[in-house]
Amino acid sequence: MTKISGLKVLITGGSSGIGKATAKLLISQGAIVAITGRDKKKLEKVAQEIQAIPIHLDVSKYKSIDVKVLDAFHSMGGMDVLVNNAGIGVFGELSDVKIEHFETTYATNVFGVDINYSRSG
Ligand SMILES: NC(=O)c1ccc[n+]([C@@H]2O[C@H](COP(=O)([O-])OP(=O)(O)OC[C@H]3O[C@@H](n4cnc5c(N)ncnc54)[C@H](OP(=O)(O)O)[C@@H]3O)[C@@H](O)[C@H]2O)c1
Q1: Residue 100 counted as domain residue
Q2: Contact 33, 9 (CB under 8 A)
């Protein structure tokens, strides 16, 4: 079984929901955890609450991913695990869904989980 204590973990979207719960659990077991999110205020508040390292990052802005992942790497002194959790969903009537919803969802949930996109172009 993998020892969690001392593991360095980056969790995208760690400022709420599943990401926050995962961060809390890993921290309680001795892991060093960095969390990301778009809402800086919420991110910093949660990071303080659960003793995580806040990394302000919008994964849909793939050009900035490399730099922010490096920030997390340096802040933690390395990185053992990436939890690619950040994601969004659009709920409602199909007739209300706009092309922008698809664009944002794809940028976040598809391109935002692949660091290679941040290296292209
Ligand atoms: N909950 C479910 O039943 C369920 C089911 C299937 C799949 N999932 C997937 O599981 C993941 C977590 O779900 P959840 O329910 O815990 O979601 P959640 O409570 O809405 O939390 C999403 C987290 O991701 C962050 N986030 C969203 N867009 C981001 C972006 N572009 N860049 C960086 N951070 C971003 C949010 O913070 P900010 O808003 O501040 O950015 C928040 O911390 C998602 O990928 C979701 O699609 C969830």
Answers
A1: yes
A2: yes
